[in-house]
Amino acid sequence: MDLLHDRCAGLDVSKKDVKACVRSPGARANQRHTEVRTFATTTNALLQLRDWLVGQGVTLIAMEATGDYWRPPFYVLEDDLNVILVNPAHAKGLPGRKSDVTDSMWLAQLAECGLLKASFVPPTPIRQLRDLTRYRTTLSREHTREAARLEKELEDAGIKISSVATDILGVSGRAMLEALIAGERDPQVLAQMAKGRMRTKITPLTQALVGRFGQHHAFLCRMHLDRLDALDQDIAKLSTRIEQALEPFRETLARLDTIPGVGRDVAEVIIAETGADMSRFPTPGHLASWAGVAPGLNQSGERNKPAHTRHGDHWLTGALGVAAMAANRTKDTTFLGARYRRLARRIGKLKALVAIEHSILTAVWHVLSENTDYHDLGGDYHAKRDPQRALRRITRDANRLGYTVRFDPIQAA
Question: What is the assigned CATH class of domain 8-112?
Answer without folding.
Answer: alpha beta
